[in-house]
Design goal:
With 64 residues, the protein is an all-alpha fold. The chain has helices spanning 11-28, 33-55. Helix 1 packs antiparallel against helix 2.
Length: 64
């Protein structure tokens, strides 16, 4: 059975790997809707990476 706590890679590593895989798949496709859709997913993943870095930054303080 799948154990949710058995990941060895961090969330950040998995997101980066996912974005790279999507870009690799998109590069193999001819220009069109499917390629655009994959590139949009890659951009969304990049945004998620940036948000994760921002949320986990030491400079982020809770509201007072």
């Amino acid at each position: 059975m799948f154990d949710r706590h058995s990941f060895k890679d961090t969330f950040k590593d998995r997101l980066a790997s996912f974005a790279k895989d999507i870009r690799d798949k998109a590069s193999l496709l001819p220009p069109g809707m499917e390629q655009d859709h994959l590139l949009q997913k890659a951009r969304q993943t990049d945004i998620a990476l940036q948000m994760d870095e921002w949320l986990s930054s030491p400079g982020l303080q809770p509201p007072k």
